[in-house]
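Justification of computing resources. Each target in the renewal requires a structure prediction run like the one illustrated here; the chain below, 279 residues long, is used simply to show the kind of job we budget for.
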Amino acid sequence: MTGPTDFHLQPAPGAQAPDGPLAGVRVLITRPAWPAARTAARLAALGAVPLVFPTLVIAPPADASAAAAVEVARARLAEFDAVIFVSPSAVEMFLAPYGAQPHALPARLSLFAPGPGTAEALAMVGAEDVAIPEDERYDAQGLLALPALGPEAIAGRRVLIVRGERGRDDLPETLRARGAEVELIAAYRSEAPATPPEGLLELIDRRSIDAISVMSSEAVSNLVALVSPPRREALLALPLYASHPRIAEAARTLGFTEVITTQAGDAGLIAALLLRNER
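Resulting structure tokens:
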């Protein structure tokens, strides 16, 4: 597991800049613990007050055989021509579980990520030559539009897709239709936090949240489930920053009334917060 559900009413001592373009903006970060720490540090450097409450907990596969398959896949990396990591959690749990020394990637491998957040996670474990979608379409369809994954380029190639237990099937199915030999590995599972959300409820009661950052549809649904009426009405009235149109639509369906769709990753969140803060 990437760490227990964490909650910070205030950033760590010395983490918050004394001023900055986001001075005093209180941002609830719902990402899993590992990427949430990076987001928090970047916001704090701009003067914001990051409030970390992961609504997704990342854990190893529950089934022993699935966990063993992850170990086998790591040992067989040299057999593949390309590896696609579908999320930062896929990188963490496959290459550097529990903060261990990162597993080395064969130099000949072609690496793919659906967006800059996953590419950054790969860079942090030493893999810098990573292809991501063009035109800021950071999803499976964006990956499939890359020439390197097109029918002529990928036919006959061996591709490993590293994802979670509930991964979508459109990516592997399309690659197989293009002639690739695709293997799937479920490197992790995501769960709702099991710890009581008292800290989150306290923030809502004190009106101490200025913005909510959500980077997955599952995270936003877990967030709403953690907050029961009458607090839920106050939660749904808060500005929510969604990193993909699909996530924004999920937030609106759940009842959020002010949803801002950002570009992907921390950069997209920060750009949207800066724009709003200038007004």
